[in-house]
Amino acid sequence: MPATDFTEQNSMVQLGNGWQELLKDEFEKEYYLRLRQYLKTEYLMPHPYRVFPPMEDIFNALRYTDYPDVKAVIIGQDPYHEYGQAHGLAFSVKDGVAIPPSLRNIYAELKNDLGVPIQESGDLTRWAKNGVLLLNDVLTVREGQAGSHDSIGWQLLTTRIVQLLNERENPMVFMLWGAYAKRRLEYITNPNHLVLTAPHPSPLSASRGFFGCCHFSKTNAFLQKNRIAPIDW
């Protein structure tokens, strides 16, 4: 039974890769134990709302992109809050789900930048398995209530994840889109890494500098300069 089933007594999340050892102490800290207890009531008790993503998908970003394999980091805010969308990867939706506006704009910029045809699916699992850590700052949300889990403690864990990435010597690229993601700048101090910033790809801000930012080609150029295979976007 996966450890994201909160009926388990063991508080350790089973990630099955290098993140397991790196985060084992975090999963025993008081803040995480409180967070886990809160999520038990959110997921398992009767409520007039559901919580997304499904329990087994909460940590997909870490499961799909192991620590030594990270080439680029894209930081989102919190999961999509409508039924069937969220599956543990920032900006991604499950195959067959309508592509959200921000992701449509990401695809549009990718086509303009690298000529990649716009995909019919919004599932970014392929990116994750190719070295793109699609990390939301907050990993869960109530149905129809954006930001509803902002204050339950997730940022303590995701801050630690960013710190661990910053500590890694092997170069990577941090792609920070929008003011929320840019709050992570203070934790990215290692000169080995490249930090790219732009407005959020939301329709409200994409035209103010996300379009034309060329982050995808800049990321691949940096990786190749450092003798790392480019990302197959």
Provide structural commentary.
- The chain has helices at residues 18-23, 30-44, 60-64, 101-114, 125-129, 154-167, 178-182, 215-225; strands at residues 51-52, 72-76, 132-136, 141-142, 173-177, 194-198.
- The chain has 233 residues and is α/β, with parallel strands linked by helices.
- The strands form two sheets. Strands 3-2-5-6 form a four-stranded parallel sheet. A two-stranded antiparallel ribbon has the order 1-4.
- Strand 5, helix 7 (178-182) and strand 6 (194-198) form a beta-alpha-beta unit.
- The radius of gyration is 17 Å and the shape is globular.
- It starts with 17 loop residues before the first helix and ends in an 8-residue tail after the last helix.
- The model has no long low-confidence stretch (mean pLDDT 93).
How would the blueprint of this fold be written?
Elements: H1 18-23, H2 30-44, E1 51-52, H3 60-64, E2 72-76, H4 101-114, H5 125-129, E3 132-136, E4 141-142, H6 154-167, E5 173-177, H7 178-182, E6 194-198, H8 215-225
Parallel strand pairs: 2-3, 2-5, 5-6
Antiparallel strand pairs: 1-4
Mean pLDDT, nearest integer?
Answer: 93
Q: How many angstroms separate the termini?
A: 33 Å
Specify Rg, calculated over alpha carbons: 17 Å
Spatial order of strands in the largest sheet: 3-2-5-6
β-strand amount: 5-15%
Number of strand elements: 6
The percentage helix is 25-40%
Counting DSSP H or I runs of 4 or more residues, the number of helices is 8
SS-based structural class?
Answer: alpha/beta
> What coarse outline follows from CA principal-axis ratios?
globular
List unreliable stretches of 5+ residues: none
Summarize the helix and strand pattern as letters: HHEHEHHEEHEHEH
Largest sheet: 4 strands, parallel
